[in-house]
């Protein structure tokens, strides 16, 4: 009898050893808790054994504490219990075997390997709360709970993934978010629960969003305050473990020019800011195209004095305006990309070089016209007047379509490109919500 | 889905036809008191609209085709729809050609019409491909993008008005009723036909529809009277694009643009694309529903677009276009006057059948 018990215990330990043969941080050792011997199995990198043991020992010293008897349950020597135990190990838990062939899983003290809550790095909140999400999903949920004290805040956690398992939380405000949206998100998460989830794109693919959308179908934010506002606006927020962003679904057209931070300003300021952003959107898309139109296809649209000035500024430039525009835009895009990832102390160098290069030298060398630089700068500034970097990229891409259409068909091409984008936006539907909606609250009016 | 979108689409469709045909036809048809002709046109339209929407409201959730099939069976409906289909196809071709010509004359003199109509037909194909629901949703975007241009091009000419051209206010004779150009103007009614083919949640009541029509009536008056007040009847009657030329007479110092008619063409061609997409969608879905239920509707659509494009190339000049317009006005009268009445009668008959 005793012999077979011993066998089963060693068998389970051996099986775990086999499973983690290649992980050097897997450890099994004998520990003493309350004068009893146990075998403890854990991953060294995720468990702080010393503090865990001292905490447990402290607890057992207290009178009428019988934890060792209660929590242990019999070991079933089956395959799925090995899988279950190894999964617990991977999540950072401690497994204890006692001499009576029983096992328990303990949530231990973990070494401090997650970041503490800090100020946001990729967003600049003005007059708002300054805490930002971190990588730890429980901490993020806690941040939201703290910001929004309401029993209508629904938090559904689930685990998703095949090879690696990821925790994610679907969060919404009951009564505010549309049931249809919640249902469609739930359904597509259920259907794809075995797919890998590591990036934001995995998530959108899981939710069945179009693969080649030129506008982001979600809003990501690292600010809990903004996320709370998104929740109150009827969006469904998905938090993914180890991603320090909250994804709010679905994005609608107004997200191009609104940020929930606006609500901290007086109404009239908000209206003003939004009008500016809408104008910036239109300018960012149309300005480069308009330059091509007015320069090469329909110069007669301009007043004659202006047309002559435009033509003069291009004097000596050897190629058509569309090539000119594409060349300089390419340069600009490269500068933008270069400055994003550079360390902060090298960034200014690029800005300076780029400024000199674009602003002065290239014009003096008669490679491009003066006017082009003005247009370029205006459209670049307009481009970044958007509420988020994500939105700006879609517009950055779409302006090329506008430009090429304009170079073929002049003002008609510009118009056609705008019509096409309107139709495209109208046809875009994510999470059962048309993109051209003005609000997500209840059954409020669509645009 | 919201009803405002449908109302907007109705308004924009009305506006599209108003800009495309109304001024030259009304000026040609009547020698004085043009507002009478315009008013009669719109009054008839309101009446038809009421009949049409009344019939639809009796059977919520059903399209006109279903109502007709219920009353007369499949073959009766087919028979009733054939002239409508002819009208739609002819109107599509004429409208597409008209817009392409206008674009060519004003915006792209160098570009051959084959190239401009590629873009035009492609955009319409894309719109019709995505379906009516998408067009309805997009119409608000269209409204905000292009209405400023419409308003701008309509209003800039006010400072050159000579108001005495407005007289005689009352011509007394109703001679325009016997003028074929007046009946070409009935094309504007075609705008409301799509209302019978929307899904039930986007369906609008008569009040809202009448609002849209009434609003477009104001623009119709503008479109007729702007060239009249600028040039006078005697000159305006000879102009091919009276409204276009009207915006060319203006010189405004503060606008950086010189060639102001291009605003008018930009806005009216955008409206034209909208109208062609809607009519194309109607044409294809009628054909698919009644005559080729087995064929893939996207194939029918692509095929229709190819025909549309080729026929645009085959029309030799604007004079031929005019003769086709007269021919089309017969079908147009059927499609916009007889067809709504037929639908109304079908609805009445079907209701009697159900209640009996």
Automatic annotation (TrEMBL), chain A:
UniProt keyword annotations, A-Z: Membrane, Transmembrane, Transmembrane helix
- What superkingdom does the record give? Bacteria
Membrane-spanning segments? 275-297, 317-336, 371-389, 401-426
* Swiss-Prot/TrEMBL GO biological process terms: spore germination
UniProt cross-references to InterPro entries, sorted A to Z: Spore_Ger (IPR004995), UPF0353/GerABKA_families (IPR050768)
Q: A Pfam family in this protein?
A: GerA
GO CC, any one term: membrane
Q: Which family does it belong to?
A: Belongs to the GerABKA family.
The name under which this protein is listed is: Spore germination protein
UniProtKB/TrEMBL annotation, chain B:
Any one GO CC term of the record: membrane
Task: Give the membrane topology.
Answer: Multi-pass membrane protein
List keywords of the entry alphabetically: Germination, Membrane, Transmembrane, Transmembrane helix, Transport
Q: Where are the transmembrane segments?
A: 36-53, 79-98, 110-128, 140-158, 178-197, 209-231, 263-287, 299-318, 324-347
Q: Name one Pfam family in it.
A: Spore_permease
Q: Which domain of life is it from?
A: Bacteria
Subcellular locations according to the entry: Membrane
InterPro entries in the record, alphabetically?
Answer: Spore_GerAB
GO terms for biological process, alphabetical: spore germination
Homology family: Belongs to the amino acid-polyamine-organocation (APC) superfamily. Spore germination protein (SGP) (TC 2.A.3.9) family.
Name of the protein in question: GerAB/ArcD/ProY family transporter
Which lineage ranks, top first, belong to the organism behind this chain?
Bacteria, Bacillati, Bacillota, Bacilli, Bacillales
């Amino acid at each position: 009898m005793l012999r077979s018990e011993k066998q089963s215990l060693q068998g389970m330990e051996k099986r775990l050893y086999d499973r983690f043969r290649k992980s050097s941080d897997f450890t099994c050792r004998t520990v003493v808790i309350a004068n009893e011997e146990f075998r403890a199995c854990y991953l060294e990198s995720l468990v702080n054994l010393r503090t865990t043991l001292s905490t447990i020992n402290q607890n057992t010293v207290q009178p009428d504490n019988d934890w060792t008897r209660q929590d242990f349950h019999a070991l079933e020597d089956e395959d799925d219990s090995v899988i279950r135990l190894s999964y617990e190990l991977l999540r950072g838990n401690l497994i204890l075997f006692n001499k009576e062939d029983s096992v328990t899983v303990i949530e231990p003290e973990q070494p401090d390997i997650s970041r503490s809550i800090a100020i946001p790095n990729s967003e600049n909140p003005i007059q708002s709360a300054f805490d930002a999400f971190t990588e730890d999903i429980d901490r993020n949920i806690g941040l939201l709970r703290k910001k929004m004290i309401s029993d209508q805040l629904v938090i559904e956690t689930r685990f998703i993934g095949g090879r690696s398992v990821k925790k994610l939380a679907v969060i919404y405000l009951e009564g505010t978010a549309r049931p249809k949206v919640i249902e469609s998100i739930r359904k597509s998460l259920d259907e794809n629960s075995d797919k890998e989830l590591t990036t934001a794109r995995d998530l959108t693919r899981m939710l069945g969003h179009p693969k080649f959308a030129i506008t982001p179908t979600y809003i990501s934010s690292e600010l809990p305050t903004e996320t709370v506002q998104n929740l109150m606006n009827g969006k469904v927020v998905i938090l993914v473990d180890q991603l320090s962003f909250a994804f709010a679904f679905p994005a609608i057209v107004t997200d191009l020019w609104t940020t929930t931070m606006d609500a901290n300003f007086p109404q009239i300021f908000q209206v003003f800011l939004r009008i500016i952003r809408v104008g910036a959107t239109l300018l960012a898309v149309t300005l480069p195209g308009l330059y091509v139109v007015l320069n090469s296809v329909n110069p007669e649209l301009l007043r004659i004095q202006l047309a002559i000035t435009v033509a003069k500024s291009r004097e000596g430039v050897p190629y058509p305006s569309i090539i000119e525009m594409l060349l300089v835009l390419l340069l600009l895009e490269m500068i933008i990309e270069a400055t994003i990832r550079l360390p902060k102390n090298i960034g200014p160098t690029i800005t300076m070089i780029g400024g000199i290069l674009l602003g002065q030298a290239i014009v003096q060398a008669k490679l491009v016209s003066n006017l082009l630089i003005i247009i370029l700068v205006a459209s670049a500034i307009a481009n970044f007047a958007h509420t988020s970097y994500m939105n700006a990229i879609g517009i950055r891409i779409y302006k090329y379509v506008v430009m090429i259409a304009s170079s073929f068909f002049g003002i008609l091409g510009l118009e056609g490109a705008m019509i096409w984008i309107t139709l495209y936006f109208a046809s875009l539907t994510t999470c059962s919500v048309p993109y051209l909606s003005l609000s997500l609250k209840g059954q409020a009016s669509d645009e | 889905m919201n009803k405002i979108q449908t109302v907007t689409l109705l308004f924009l469709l009305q506006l599209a036809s108003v800009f495309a045909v109304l001024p030259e036809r009304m000026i040609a048809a009547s020698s004085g008191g043009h507002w009478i002709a315009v008013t009669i046109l719109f009054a008839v339209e309101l009446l038809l609209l009421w009949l049409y929407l009344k019939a639809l409201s009796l059977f919520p959730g059903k399209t006109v085709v279903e109502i007709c099939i219920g009353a007369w069976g499949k073959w009766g409906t087919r028979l009733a729809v054939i002239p409508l289909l002819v009208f739609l196809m002819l109107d599509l071709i004429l409208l597409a050609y008209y817009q392409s010509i206008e674009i060519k004359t004003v915006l792209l003199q160098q570009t051959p019409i084959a190239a401009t109509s590629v873009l035009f037909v492609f955009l319409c194909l894309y719109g019709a491909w995505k379906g009516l629901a998408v067009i309805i949703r997009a119409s608000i975007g269209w409204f905000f993008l292009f209405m400023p241009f419409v308003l701008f091009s309509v209003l800039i000419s006010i400072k050159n008005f000579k108001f005495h051209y407005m007289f005689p206010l009352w011509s007394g004779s109703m001679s325009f009723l016997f003028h074929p150009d007046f009946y070409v103007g009935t094309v504007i009614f075609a705008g409301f036909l799509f209302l019978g083919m929307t899904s039930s949640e986007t369906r609008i009541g008569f009040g809202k529809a009448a609002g849209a029509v009434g609003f477009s009536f104001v623009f119709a008056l503008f479109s007729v009277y702007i060239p009249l007040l600028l040039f006078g009847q005697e000159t305006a009657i000879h102009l091919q694009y009276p409204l276009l030329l009207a915006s060319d007479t203006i010189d405004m110092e503060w606008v950086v643009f010189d060639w102001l008619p291009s605003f008018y063409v930009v806005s009216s061609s955008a409206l034209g694309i909208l109208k062609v997409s809607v009519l194309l969608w109607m044409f294809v879905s009628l054909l698919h529903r009644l005559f080729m239920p087995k064929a893939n509707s996207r194939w029918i659509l692509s095929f229709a677009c190819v025909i549309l494009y080729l026929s645009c190339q085959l029309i030799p000049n604007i004079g031929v276009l005019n003769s086709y317009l007269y021919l089309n006005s017969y079908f147009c009268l059927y499609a916009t006057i007889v067809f709504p009445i037929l639908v109304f009668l079908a609805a009445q008959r079907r209701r009697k059948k159900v209640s009996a």
